[in-house]
Amino acid sequence: MHAFCLPGHERHLLATAAFLPQAMRHFIQEVGSYPFSSYKLVFVDELIQPRHDGATMCLASIDLLHTEDAIDPVFESRLILSQAVAVQWFGVNIYQKTWSDTWLVNGLASYITASFIRKHLGNNEYRFRLKKDILRVVDMDVGEMPPICQPGLLEPTDPAFRQFVNLKAPLVLHILDRRMHKTGTSQGLHRIIPKIILDALENENAAAVSTHSFLRMCRKTAGLDFRPFAEQWIYGSGCPRFAVRSHFNRKKMAVEMHVKQESLAYEANKDDPVSLALLRPMPFFDGQMTIRIHEADGTPYEHVLDIRQPYKKFEVPFNTKYKRVRRNTKRFIARQQAAEAAANPETAELIGVVDMSFGLGIWEDDASREEWKVADWSEADEAHMATATYEWIRLDTDIEWLTKTSFDQEPFMWVSQLQRDRDVIAQIEAIHALSRIPSKIVSSTFTKTVLTTTYFFRVRSEAALSLVPCAGAAVEFLGLYHLYKLFFRYCYDPLNREDLFKNELVPRPNDFSDFSEYFLRKALITALSQVRLENGETLPIVRRFLIDQLRYNDNSTNSFSDSYYIAHIIGALGCALVSTTPPERAELQGDHIPQVVEDPRAQIDRDILNGAIAEVDRYRDLDRVIPSWRNSITVATLEFRTMLMMANSIPGDPAFFLLYTREGNSVPVRIAAFDGLFLTKWYSAEVFKYLMAVISRDGSRIISRHVASNMCESLAIQFAIGDIKMLAKEPEPILIEEDATKPEVVKEPKKSEVDIMIKTLRKDKEIGRNVILRKTIMPMMLNHSLDHEVRWSLLKLADLCFRAVEEPLPKMTITLPPPTPVEPPSKKLKLNLSIGGTNPSAPSPRIAPEGPAAISTPVAEQPTPVLPKIVLKARDPSLAPPTPAVPKQKATAAWAKSGLSSQEKKMIDAILKRVNTHPAAAWFLHPVDPVSQGIPTYFDVVKNPMDLSTMASKLKTGKYSNRQDFADDFKLMLSNALLFNPVGTPPYDDALKVESLFNKLWKTTDDAVEKDNKAKVKLSLKARDPREALPPLRPFPPPQISRAPPPPPPVPVLAPKPVPLPVRERDLDEELLEAVDAPEDLGGDEDAPFDEDVDDLLLGSTSVAAPSPPPKIKLKAPRRPAPDMDDDDDLSHTVDDLESALWDAAEASSINKSERFKSTESGARSSPAAAPIPKIKMSIGKQNRSTTTPPLPAVGEPSSSRQHEASHKSLNRDEPATGTPSASNDHPTSRKRPSGGPDLEDASHVPIDAAKCKALIQKLSEVPYGWIFVSPVDSTQPGLESYYEEIKQPMDYQTMSRKIDRKKYSNMEEFADDLRLVYANGRKFNVASSEILDLIDLLEGIWKKEWPHMIKRKLSADAKKQLGQAIAQLKTDDVNMIFHHPVDPIALGIPHYFDVIPREDARDLSTIKNKIDKGLYQGAEQVDQDVKLMFANAYKFNGKDSPISAIASALEQTWNRLYAKARSAGEAGGNNSKKPRIV
Q1: pLDDT, average across residues 1174-1198
Q2: Using one digit for the tens of pLDDT, what is the confidence trace for 889-944?
Q3: Strand order in the sheet with 40-44
């Protein structure tokens, strides 16, 4: 074992850690062998927690060190450091299996630590701490604390509850140990703990201990089922409290015990179903309780009470008929003499069973009794004591419950228990019980206890503190006299013995060699400071006494430090100077209030206050010159100032505390100074700047966290004490009662104190409207170097001081270079429409010719025309055509040099990406390491190893010349796995899964690549086609519906002067996306791995033979939707005219529903194929704009009206333009639904709610970086040039909002489809950007959370009222009582009811009415279904011919009538219901 510390603390290290070898030996002997080879204890500075445990090492705070002459910190330091050694067994070597099992590991570590404390500090110290911990747990577990074990917990315990869990866990293990000992054959946890250690040494998996396995081990060891115990104490919360009364029944010769149990945790949460489910408070605790009755002869008899009910009367048999032993009997005196003659406590216990020596030899003569003013029992008390049949009764003697007990027992019985029971816990219980009934007898008893040195010093200190209730005027200040008399032993003899209170007590030089007297002395000082008059103030003599203890303190001859003793006196003096009555508000306190008569006591109080402040300041200055350990005296003086300031005894001065908050002071001093500063007006401008600088730049992380966390707490404290003025309360609204015909007026709930405080802080000029706070808090929170705890505290402060507002979308300003001036064209732009194969006099789609030629020829009389391509040109003849830019040469990648095509490269990347993310591919991600994986014979069997990372490396370096080489390596990898691993092993099974996945992916992608290669061949042939001159074209009228035979294929149209342009090679993505509407049937395999996040190669890459799509009207679009150019020059107006021509052309080419069906019927008879649709190409000046319309149905081809409507929507100028035929199908139902996205409930039956949809879009836009999806993508930005080549169906929030305004959505599912498309496009284009994918996951999570509320419908107020009245009318008749409440199978004698009727299908009128009131029904039809289900249950269980079914049938007819009336009324009144808003 090694201990380390910083330089200068070597002497302190030896005094602090010298006991650790003793602790290590104890744990090895009691628990098991030490699991490691060494242990290091390192004391460091600036540690947030007292210690941090790790394997073989513990980092401890330097605050745990103490000097050799210290007394107070020794106990706590040894407790913390001994637990650090115990954690090496439980916490490091043995760890929790899940987070919910943390209580067990921490509890076992604390439990074995307690066993060492029992040996090291004694059994009395152990039992005293045990009792104190039980009382703390019972006081804390009153309804807000969770169970110590919460199954399913996915994260560590909340830090706010961690201390409570660590405190309760060892106590639960203690009572479990006591109950295991009751079996007789079990040794309790002392047998189980070594078994856990031994199992962990033999099996590494056993080191992860769980609650379930621990309880199973306890059951096997003790032979008892501990599941009820675990449900109550481990998985449940709360602690029982018992109220017990006893009465002796002489006829039955038994003691009647009335035991009543209550659970405050359950009472606090019984009306909150959420708290009942989360906290699981126990309404009742059962088990056995051991009581001990000390009968008249002094013999204790133990009895066991089996507690199974909240209240029960127990009759405990009495074992002797002897009366109570009286004091003046010879037998009593003989027993006293025998106890005194006993040589040791064991002999005394054998002689008299109980120790009779407590208090013997105190006040034996009358003079001493008169000097101490000892009170004796009266004759009536003696007579009553003589009739008692037993001495006293103790409850829960074996500490098997975590409880507080209120026991109604006679005072003399408590005195007997205090004086004659050897157990420390029994003595503490007697002292606490007697302190609740103050009297002179009780004061004398406590004084005798303090004087008796055979009591444990903790018990003597408790008795001294319990003298405070006896020091009041009701007991004639006898307790105060006894406290003074007890403290005189540490002072010089007083000059005036007749009146002790008139003396100036000068203490003797300190001598702390007797630790028990040291702690007793401190307890007496604390008790004197707590004595109060009726007005809440301390007597002046007490305050002077405490000042004298500071003034005359002498530690020159003492071998121990008195720094903690001085700090204790300063704290007691501050407590004595503060009145316990609430101080008046600040506006009523001060020197500005005139006083008519000067109170002489006020001058005395001021003199005492000034003297106290002077003494305290003297010690603070002395501590600056000769510092105490950790500056404990300075810390006490700062806390003294804070107490007086809070009591309005001295003014609050921030400058005083600021001096001690600076760097250079010790951390405890700075913390105490900041605590005092935060109780002043710290939010002034200068102080606030200083605090923010401390938070952001202070060198101590402890100080930064403390300052940041105390900001919020101090605001709440100052609001509570009135330093922050509360806003004027708003008058409560007047409630006017009206008749029942009008809707009920709901009264607004009254604001809580928290709401009022928050509103006050936000409107305060110096807090919520503090300019410095508003300017500095956000930059500080965005500082990346800020501590996370500090940032969290600042967020809470911002939430407290500022009201949250909706953040507008971020704006981006882009400065464009000034345009190059261009001379205006000499000629006005003209629209030339050249259409080949038509009559020049025929009208255009938009511009009608002048004169009689405007009259068109009927369709029936026109011959079937040849549909050519239409070219719309609007050019500026003064501008020369732009010179094509020479593309830059790019470096050839290594894979391209090997002969691998780009499509094959994309195919291999897609397969590797999909396989790498598959769970079964974990075996194949990296090369096999025979050493680390324990398979040394691997390379003896496998000669050519292969793995996925090797294949990716070969692909990158150009080792594959074609895709077949990659497939060979992949098959080699799988064959290696199947060869080396036996059949049935996990690697063998996973290899088969990967092989199946690879086959599916290969078939899909290989077909797509083959199709792409064929397309390239066709395109190359077309590129080599000579540019032949064609005959001049003739104008042609717009396409019309014709029943004539199908026309020949269209002839390509070339410009009069064709310019040779390079033929662009079609990308594989375009081929694949064109085939998405006709996917290939893969044999019905629904598990084919198709997701939108895979490369475009896997989207619709296969197709079946289908009718060739009709020719499509292609409008070449820019790479993003064209900006609004309504305010531009004449060119923009010309563009608008051209666009108008295009819209009308599309309208002329589209077909309405009736015409399509007619053409379908005639087309089936007259034409085998449909007429193709012409292609329209538009070019305007320098700027080329093209748009592509969706495929329109051919003449004679059946299609739905929704597809026809989609063709019109595609030409809407407000929709984003795209570059593929399918891009304009904006309506969700007219295109394939995007894959992926959140799994949402279908909402095709829910009508569109524009307000909810816009609210969702607004909420998604406010997410950080959510603005990415707000507007259409600008493909001119760097990195987005190929966006519209890859994304064929663009969508964004702005487009969706316009569609909402124009009522393009008919239901919520169509809106959801467009939102899915937004995120599918984002995933597809940003497949390599994890940040964008994470953002999309976040947005989809928000959408998924809000979606149920968006599609959820609620009953209107009128419908709820009508349906509620209908249910109430069904309950008016008594004959229908069987349907009023849920069926109770036990009470009704039908235990098999839920075997026939499932519990989830059970219905009754009360349950239905409650669901209506709580708004759990979305429609009236659901109420009707539940009522009908109730009747169906009655028919099913009772039969059709039973009387119950007859009643149900009559009631059902009544319900049908009431339901029809209620639904009609509800629908009439529900149209004005206000729709909720997404927040």
Answers
A1: 36
A2: 455 677 777 777 877 888 888 888 889 888 888 889 889 888 778 788 888 889 88
A3: 2-4, 40-44, 57-61, 51-54
The rounded distance, in Å, linking the Cα atoms of 256 and 1404 is: 45
Contacts (Cβ under 8 Å, ≥6 apart) of 122: none
Indicate the SS3 state at residue 337: helix
Helix (H, G, I), strand (E, B) or coil at 406: strand
What is the dihedral angle through the alpha carbons of 35, 40, 41, 44, rounded to the nearest 10 degrees? -130
Q: What are phi and psi of 281, to 5 degrees?
A: -70, 140
Diameter over CA atoms, the chain: 148
The pLDDT tens digits for 1451-1468 are 888 888 888 887 766 555
Between 633 and 771, the more confident residue is 633
Count of C-beta atoms within a 10 Å radius of residue 21: 12
Q: Rounded distance, CA 863 to CA 837, Å?
A: 12
CA distances to 737, 743, 750, 1362 from 747, rounded to whole Å, are 11, 13, 9, 21
CB contact at 8 A, 579 and 563? no
Nearest to 1208 by CA among 1190, 1186, 1182, 1183: 1190
Tokens matching residue 329? 């009997």
CA distances from residue 597 to 403, 590, 601 in whole angstroms, order as listed: 54, 16, 12
Tokens 């103050």 identify what position?
Answer: 438
Q: Specify the 3-state DSSP secondary structure of 457.
A: helix
Instruction: Report the C-alpha gap between 627 and 621 in whole angstroms.
Output: 9
In this model, does residue 601 exceed pLDDT 70?
A: yes
pTM for the whole structure = 0.57
Mean predicted confidence (pLDDT) in 1426-1434 = 88
1102 or 787: which leads in pLDDT? 787
Name the residue type at position 910: A
Using a CB cutoff of 8 Å and minimum separation of 24, what contacts does 186-195 make? 186/221, 186/222, 186/223, 189/111, 190/30, 191/221, 192/217, 192/218, 192/221, 193/31, 193/32, 193/108, 193/111, 193/112, 194/31, 194/32
d(CA 133, CA 240): 15
Distance, CA of 26 to CA of 39 (rounded, Å): 15
Query: Are 150 and 103 within 8 A, CB to CB?
Result: no
Beta-carbon contacts of residue 698 (< 8 Å; ≥ 6 apart): 663, 704, 707
Residue reference for tokens 């000629």? 827
Contacts of 1412 (CB under 8 A, 6+ apart): 1355, 1360, 1363, 1364, 1367, 1423
CA distance 986 to 769: 65
Token output for 1411 = 């669901």
Q: How far is CA 714 from the centre of its chain?
A: 25
Residue 521 in tokens? 């002395």
Taking a C-beta distance cutoff of 8 angstroms, is the pair 450, 463 a contact?
yes
Angle at CA of residue 722, ends 707 and 759, nearest 5°: 75
Of residues 1373 and 576, which shows the higher confidence score?
A: 576
Closest CA relative to residue 1411, chosen from 1352, 1367, 1347 = 1367
Token couple for 1160? 């379908």
Q: Which residues pair with 507 in a beta bridge?
A: 491
What does the DSSP 8-state code read for residue 348? Answer: H
The dihedral built from the CA positions of residue 415, 416, 420 and 421, taken in this order, carries a sign that is: negative
In degrees rounded to 5, what are phi and psi of residue 303?
-135, 155
Q: Under a CB-based contact definition with an 8 Å cutoff, are residues 1439 and 1347 in contact? A: no
CB proximity list for 51: less than 8 A, separation 6 or greater:
58, 59, 60, 61, 64, 80, 81, 84
Sign of CA dihedral 833, 834, 836, 838: positive
- Token reading at 1202: 């929704």
For residue 260 the two structure tokens come to 């009543």
Which residues, at least 6 apart from 370, have a Cβ–Cβ distance to it below 8 Å?
none
Average pLDDT over residues 1260-1264: 87
Reading the block at residue 1156, the tokens are 């399509």
Q: In whole angstroms, what is the distance from residue 1232 CA to residue 297 CA? A: 95
In the block, tokens 């007005």 appear at: 535
Cα gap 203→92, rounded to integer Å: 15
